[in-house]
User: Fold this.
Amino acid sequence: MKAVTDVVPVGFVHNDRLDLTDDNWGPVTSVIHLDSNQFTSDALLRLDSFSHVEVVYHLHRVPVSKIQRGARHPRSNVDWPLVGIFAQRGKNRPNRIGVSRCRLLRVDGLDIHVEGLDAVDGTPVLDIKPYMTQFAPRGKVVQPTWVDELMRNYY
Assistant:
């Protein structure tokens, strides 16, 4: 299988969050600074007309040795079921790619100010997309009950 090699960060996350703990991301404010060598401010034209953005980023601080490829207990909590890595949103993913929806506070030049982005300071951002309700799931969303407990303090 051919590896994808042409993914270049479009920018980086700047915030006060340095630790990799899994909870309390809701009040975190961040600035995503776009790379001025690749973009001018017109790349963000009218992004501020949206209330939320989806941010795709590289979980760069997860060591390759910690990558999970099979099943595990989420957050290593044996009270929660053993589930496959693709049946959870843990950071130790095979390609270490994270996706987050967060509130867009404002756009200033090449800076995107957001709230609730679950990425630590220095995180490489791979893509930014406006969140559109038409891309929300259609129909009823179903998830296991253990997810409610896991996510109780996440945001």
In short: Residues 5 and 95 are 12 Å apart (CA to CA). The chain is about 5% helix and 30% strand. The mean pLDDT is 94. The helical segments are 145-151.
